[in-house]
Amino acid sequence: MRDKSLYNGEAVSFGRYMFRTALALVVIFEMLGLMRLVKLLVPRLPPGNGMSWRLRLLCRSSSILASAGRACSAVGSQAGAWEPDAASALVAVNSTTRKLVKLLCLSLACASCYGCFLAADHLNAQEPVFSGPQPNEPIVPFQVRSLTEPDFGKQVDYVSKAKGKPLLLIFVHDLNRQSISLVRNLTAYSAKRASDGLETGVVLLQDDANEAEKSFQRMKHAFNAGTATGVSPEGREGPGSYGLNRLVTLTILLSKEDKVVANYTLVQPSLQVDLPKIVKSITEVVGGTVPSLEELIGKDAMRAMQTDRKDKAPDMSGIMRSLIQKSASEEKVIQVAAEIEKQMEGDEAVRKEIYRIATAVTGGGKLSDYGIPKAQEFLTKWANASREKSGTQPRSDKATKE
Questions:
Q1: Strands of 199-204's sheet, edge to edge?
Q2: Beta carbons within 8 Å of 303's beta carbon, 6+ residues apart
Q3: Strand 199-204 and strand 229-231: pairing?
Q4: pTM attached to this predicted model
Q5: Residues 26, 61: contact at Cβ < 8 Å?
Q6: Over the stretch 101-156, which tens digit does the pLDDT of each residue have?
Q7: Is the preceding peptide bond at 141 cis, omega within 30 degrees of 0?
Q8: DSSP single-letter state for residue 172
Q9: Do the beta carbons of residue 205 and residue 173 sit within 8 Å?
Q10: What's the DSSP call for residue 138?
Q11: Contact yes or no for 254/167 (Cβ under 8 A)
Q12: What does the DSSP 8-state code read for residue 193?
């Protein structure tokens, strides 16, 4: 007769094997960037309460693994009371099940990799950025220190104050010209909808709350007067239960009956693109027609915006980053440079912007910090072309690098 501890050891060992296999898959998937595909395959996750989908997925996985571990432990503890033949069958079943688990894991990995190839272009081109609770998730009360009258200096709670009415919460992670412009125009519209039951609260997020208050006092003329504004005492992360992303510029939440209706996470706020979308969501909650952009910002601002758009240099930062990556191969650099020169031939504004960037980089005395030598050759070439066009003496490669 075999030792009873052997059967218990088989079950416990199998439980540990399952855990190690699952953990290894999670690590491999994370390294390969496949965890978002796992999210797509697991659409029904437990309520978030402000948690990110990764944390929710981890909680669900932990729950399943815990249940499996308890089951294996229970089977192992009972194995000693079984007859020898039944216990031997358990060992055989465990051996067979291990093979099935290996096959299942291999199949899952292959299917995920295949799905990754199918969705790679879409995921790379439109990688979503998350911040704060998502639609249909609850919003919870939180405290801010008011920076506006009549509650100046007091602790206020915009969520509790709204009492379930439509609420527009604007979290400002970064105070700059674009974010202030969007907040000002958006709160000007929301103030007009206050009579329809819409509440509004602006929350400034900075590591130093006192510094945030000083910044607001210097810039409050640029904000919409009368809009409730406060600073979070919890720093740039904001209310812990909200899961806000400190790397974005604005997180805008629209809620009704204490549940999120719309979430707008903005990295580069745009009046033309983002303001109409947010206003449209507001009208869907409180009613009314969607005003035009000109009605929202005024004719003068619209005219100035159109003028700025004509004079604005094209954004070439993305393609230039690809050119100067230290990890880029020479073949990749040549391909990117060819694409840049193709755009330069067809667009004078693009050519001027590339010349400007190349001249600034090569003239800074730190050309070696930008990409591999092949990339530096192209930057030098464009900088010299710019100088020749302007009548300035081109610099040699040696002088540029120095």
A1: 155-156, 144-146, 229-231, 199-204, 167-172, 250-256, 259-266
A2: none
A3: parallel
A4: 0.50
A5: yes
A6: 555 555 555 544 444 444 444 434 345 789 999 999 999 999 999 999 899 999 99
A7: no
A8: E
A9: yes
A10: B
A11: yes
A12: T
